[in-house]
Amino acid sequence: MAKNNISIIFLLVSSVGAFSQSEDLLEFERKIEKSVVETNIPFLEKAYADDFRFKHGTGLVDSKASWLKSVSNAKGQYVSRVLDSVEVEIHDKIGITNGKITIARKTDAADKNYMIKYVRIYVRKKDQWELISHRTVYEIDYK
């Protein structure tokens, strides 16, 4: 009987730990979106892995350097980037998220409102999440 109680306690503690990591990862993902809107390049430099890859819905693939340059060049254009329907999976030091981002962007040419569905992969290093891959799997313009 005592062994069963220990197993149950271990499962509860493990579940709480996974929930805590899931919430931590989701908050980190929100900070990334806020940092893109605010053009907070120092935060993004730390948030993205050196070998980060961003595959857009168009097929374009950005590296960390090219994506950060794009964000920097778009300073003031991103009005909002709102996460929705995000699912989080934790596998030890690997985190996987998928969900939607509704994006509002203003350029000299036009306003653009669109939604993307995405999958992201993170790795946890020294108590900090690091984004290693973003893949847009679906995009729809709202015009």
Order of H and E elements? HHEEHEEEE
Q: Name the helicity range.
A: 25-40%
Mean pLDDT: 89
Principal-axis shape? globular
Q: Pairing-aware structural class of the strands and helices?
A: alpha+beta
How big a fraction of the residues is strand? over 45%
Multimerization status? single chain
Uncertain ranges: 7-17
Characterize the biggest β-sheet: 6 strands, mixed
Question: Taking strands numbered 1, 2, ... along the chain, how are they ordered across the largest sheet?
Answer: 2-1-6-5-4-3
Give the radius of gyration.
Answer: 18 Å
Count up the helices.
3
Number of β-strand runs: 6
State the end-to-end distance. Answer: 62 Å
Structure in words:
The longest helix has 37 residues, at 2-38. β1 (48-55) and β2 form a beta hairpin. Strands 2-1-6-5-4-3 form a 6-stranded mixed beta sheet. The protein has 3 helices and 6 strands. By secondary structure, it is of the alpha+beta class. α1 (2-38) runs antiparallel to α2 (41-47). It is 38% helix and 47% strand.
